[in-house]
Design goal:
It is built from 4 helices and no strands. It is about 75% helix and about 0% strand. It has about 130 residues and is an all-alpha fold. The longest helix has about 40 residues, at about 5-40.
Length: about 130
Protein backbone atom coordinates (compact mmCIF):
# COMPACT_ATOMS: atom_id res chain seq x y z
CA UNK A 1 0.00 0.00 0.00
CA UNK A 2 1.38 3.38 -1.01
CA UNK A 3 1.66 6.06 1.56
CA UNK A 4 0.71 9.66 0.98
CA UNK A 5 4.38 10.66 0.72
CA UNK A 6 5.05 8.26 -2.16
CA UNK A 7 2.01 9.56 -4.04
CA UNK A 8 3.30 13.12 -3.63
CA UNK A 9 6.73 12.05 -4.85
CA UNK A 10 5.17 10.51 -7.96
CA UNK A 11 2.70 13.25 -8.84
CA UNK A 12 4.76 16.35 -7.96
CA UNK A 13 7.23 15.91 -10.85
CA UNK A 14 4.34 15.15 -13.21
CA UNK A 15 2.54 18.31 -12.10
CA UNK A 16 5.68 20.41 -12.59
CA UNK A 17 6.26 18.84 -16.01
CA UNK A 18 2.63 19.59 -16.93
CA UNK A 19 2.96 23.25 -15.94
CA UNK A 20 6.21 23.64 -17.91
CA UNK A 21 4.66 21.95 -20.95
CA UNK A 22 1.56 24.16 -20.68
CA UNK A 23 3.70 27.34 -20.51
CA UNK A 24 5.84 26.18 -23.43
CA UNK A 25 2.85 25.36 -25.63
CA UNK A 26 1.10 28.61 -24.69
CA UNK A 27 4.20 30.67 -25.46
CA UNK A 28 4.75 28.92 -28.78
CA UNK A 29 1.11 29.36 -29.77
CA UNK A 30 1.15 33.08 -28.95
CA UNK A 31 4.50 33.51 -30.73
CA UNK A 32 3.25 31.89 -33.92
CA UNK A 33 -0.06 33.76 -33.89
CA UNK A 34 1.54 37.16 -33.29
CA UNK A 35 4.33 36.52 -35.80
CA UNK A 36 1.67 35.56 -38.31
CA UNK A 37 -0.28 38.80 -37.70
CA UNK A 38 1.99 41.62 -36.54
CA UNK A 39 4.83 41.73 -39.11
CA UNK A 40 2.56 41.77 -42.18
CA UNK A 41 0.01 44.16 -40.66
CA UNK A 42 2.23 46.65 -38.84
CA UNK A 43 5.76 45.91 -40.01
CA UNK A 44 6.91 44.91 -36.53
CA UNK A 45 9.84 42.54 -36.10
CA UNK A 46 9.00 38.93 -35.22
CA UNK A 47 8.64 38.10 -31.53
CA UNK A 48 10.84 35.66 -29.65
CA UNK A 49 9.47 32.90 -27.45
CA UNK A 50 10.21 34.88 -24.28
CA UNK A 51 8.49 38.00 -25.60
CA UNK A 52 5.45 35.93 -26.51
CA UNK A 53 5.43 34.33 -23.05
CA UNK A 54 5.63 37.82 -21.54
CA UNK A 55 2.70 38.94 -23.70
CA UNK A 56 0.72 35.92 -22.56
CA UNK A 57 1.46 36.72 -18.90
CA UNK A 58 0.63 40.40 -19.40
CA UNK A 59 -2.71 39.58 -21.01
CA UNK A 60 -3.50 37.18 -18.19
CA UNK A 61 -2.75 39.87 -15.62
CA UNK A 62 -4.70 42.59 -17.44
CA UNK A 63 -7.70 40.60 -18.62
CA UNK A 64 -7.71 37.40 -16.58
CA UNK A 65 -7.79 38.83 -13.08
CA UNK A 66 -4.95 36.68 -11.71
CA UNK A 67 -7.37 33.89 -10.87
CA UNK A 68 -9.04 35.83 -8.04
CA UNK A 69 -12.56 35.30 -9.34
CA UNK A 70 -13.74 33.71 -6.11
CA UNK A 71 -12.62 36.48 -3.79
CA UNK A 72 -14.86 37.48 -0.91
CA UNK A 73 -15.55 40.87 -2.41
CA UNK A 74 -17.12 39.46 -5.58
CA UNK A 75 -19.23 37.01 -3.57
CA UNK A 76 -20.47 39.90 -1.44
CA UNK A 77 -21.35 41.87 -4.56
CA UNK A 78 -23.30 38.86 -5.86
CA UNK A 79 -25.23 38.47 -2.63
CA UNK A 80 -26.15 42.15 -2.63
CA UNK A 81 -27.34 41.91 -6.24
CA UNK A 82 -29.42 38.84 -5.33
CA UNK A 83 -31.08 40.70 -2.46
CA UNK A 84 -31.87 43.70 -4.66
CA UNK A 85 -33.35 41.42 -7.33
CA UNK A 86 -35.47 39.62 -4.71
CA UNK A 87 -36.76 42.91 -3.34
CA UNK A 88 -37.62 44.14 -6.82
CA UNK A 89 -39.45 40.90 -7.59
CA UNK A 90 -41.34 41.12 -4.29
CA UNK A 91 -42.38 44.71 -4.96
CA UNK A 92 -43.49 43.83 -8.48
CA UNK A 93 -45.51 40.87 -7.24
CA UNK A 94 -47.13 43.06 -4.59
CA UNK A 95 -48.10 45.66 -7.18
CA UNK A 96 -49.54 43.03 -9.51
CA UNK A 97 -51.68 41.59 -6.70
CA UNK A 98 -53.51 44.91 -6.42
CA UNK A 99 -54.14 45.23 -10.17
CA UNK A 100 -57.28 44.16 -11.93
CA UNK A 101 -56.92 41.68 -14.82
CA UNK A 102 -57.39 44.54 -17.32
CA UNK A 103 -54.67 46.60 -15.66
CA UNK A 104 -52.32 43.61 -15.68
CA UNK A 105 -52.93 43.05 -19.39
CA UNK A 106 -52.33 46.75 -20.17
CA UNK A 107 -49.13 46.60 -18.14
CA UNK A 108 -47.95 43.50 -20.03
CA UNK A 109 -48.69 45.19 -23.36
CA UNK A 110 -46.72 48.28 -22.40
CA UNK A 111 -43.77 46.12 -21.32
CA UNK A 112 -43.87 44.15 -24.59
CA UNK A 113 -43.95 47.37 -26.62
CA UNK A 114 -41.21 48.98 -24.56
CA UNK A 115 -38.82 46.03 -24.81
CA UNK A 116 -39.60 45.17 -28.43
CA UNK A 117 -41.50 41.91 -28.08
CA UNK A 118 -44.52 43.12 -30.06
CA UNK A 119 -48.08 41.97 -29.48
CA UNK A 120 -48.73 38.86 -27.43
CA UNK A 121 -49.43 35.51 -29.07
CA UNK A 122 -53.05 35.53 -27.82
CA UNK A 123 -53.93 38.67 -29.82
CA UNK A 124 -55.14 38.39 -33.41
CA UNK A 125 -52.60 39.44 -36.03
CA UNK A 126 -53.61 42.28 -38.33
CA UNK A 127 -56.99 43.05 -39.95
Amino acid sequence: MRTRWTRVMVFAPLAILGMVLFAFLGGELVKHLLNWLLPPLFGWPPLTFWQALGMLALCRILFGGLGLHGSGRSRLRGRIADRVTERMADRMEERCEHMSPEERERFRERMRERFGFGPSASEPKGP
